[in-house]
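Input (Adenylyl-sulfate kinase):
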Amino acid sequence: MSTANLSPIPELYVSYESAQKLKAEAGNLISWDLTPRQICDLELLMNGGFNPLKGFLTEADYDSVVDKMRLADGTLWPMPITLDVGEDFAEKLEIGQDIALRDQEGVILATMTVTDRWAPNKALEAEKVFGADDDAHPAVNYLHNQAGGIYLGGPVTGIQQPVHYDFRARRDTPNELRAFFRKVGWKRVVAFQTRNPLHRAHQELTFRAAREAQANLLIHPVVGMTKPGDVDHFTRVRCYEAVLDKYPAATTSMSLLNLAMRMAGPREAVWHGLIRKNHGCTHFIVGRDHAGPGKNSAGEDFYGPYDAQDLFREHQEEMGIEMVDFKHMVWVQERAQYEPNDEIKDKDNVTILNISGTELRRRLAEGLEIPEWFSFPEVVAELRRTRPPRSQQGFTVFFTGFSGSGKSTIANALMVKLMEMGGRPVTLLDGDIVRKNLSSELGFSKEHRDLNIRRIGYVASEITKNGGIAICAPIAPYATTRRAVREDIEAFGAFVEVHVATSIEECERRDRKGLYKLAREGKIKEFTGISDPYDVPKNPELSVETENVDVDSCAHQVLLKLESMGLIAGRV
Ligand code: PPS
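Output:
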């Protein structure tokens, strides 16, 4: 019967005195401003959550992890933990040089000796680690569209933990948890990883897992980075706190983990297991489609539903943490209790009820009832507070199309119609208005266009977050940038992409501003559709034709779409 070895594990921090000295010296080093994901990784490197790693992976370790889930010395490690930087920054460095790693406010958290610098084969990393080089996978999208082109590797010296102002008492380092388990005498602990609010089915399955493993229970939610679109961690932690009261305090505890998830399914499950082992746990619950990233660009699942359990089982002995497989719990109405779906013998004679994540989101979005058997009233109240019905949430309508396609005209008409309806403030971020007020220094290179669109996206996401309606009408020629903006906005409300599909020939024929003529004469360079690319949207929420259709009808089509999406109701 496995019990935990709860002696402290190595951290990368130096003593308080050394840290003060090092911090002063590090002020003179070239410094790298860490991205939010890198801050999460660094925290777990420094506090031993990623033990046995001693820093960001070297090239040899990276190659080996990508290829066979092992460090170069053969130790099992499934996830490349790499420090990605831009080429300009990488070029400034000498091998062997120390750099300072700063958080986003400029606080020095650590130093790193750069022993390795290389340009990774990202397509290979995507294939091997995430199973496909497909941007529909959130981590592959991150790899190609957000991560820098160069990786730096080398040992890290920890100066201080990243600062968290929220839920401080609920965050524990591996050694703090180990000390807690020692103190309360918990020798067997089963960890439950989650990125979702907990409902009654989760409570039942965690009870069962603890009973099966004869272990205490650690609810160990991820509060670092999860899947884009997830419920924000502030709401989730308030939900967890409400549910925690329903567990016996003597056998259950909760701690928050500042992990940046990759949604890498099977490899992620093994990684999660190793992290929990480092936090002093002996058992780990692995569910169906653990850390699943959703569908690929062909509409199919990236991984098989039990791939994660299979890979975990294969390695659990070596990992030193045992898997408890997650049962799919369903509500049996006649017996008024949750039971594992595959253990119900009298399926024909009983009523089996279940509400999927998608169905729950729909009910919240439409303000429909959420039954008592499904969740706890406190959890539902929290979720309703942050997710009011769609008709009361903010949203963004994002028009895209060629210059002169009619974006601004339709956007203006839509704005007036929405203002006539009332209820929510409406802001128009038209291409020309934005270029005048937010982006006056920018031109039309890819870099500048992207910056322009990211700025629009940022403002629209703030408007959406605060319950308003943002109408954007730039050209926005690049699909990856539009996707990035969509992700930023969907964290707070709906993103409605409207392709104003006027052909380039028609736009040129209209040539309202006389710009096409100038572009043809070569007097305007990089002109979209003439001498610069435009990625036609593949799956916009709506595509409007403007040839032989009046503006009022086009704007009305958008209104109908908004209505069908539940974003506007009879009386707002
Ligand atoms: S982008 O690509 O989204 O940043 O462009 P946007 O901010 O919407 O600006 C487009 C307007 O700028 C004028 N203009 C050009 N468009 C495309 N290519 C080039 N090189 C260019 N130079 C100037 C043009 O009038 C666009 O106006 P709209 O409102 O789209 O008709």
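The chain has a mean pLDDT of 95.
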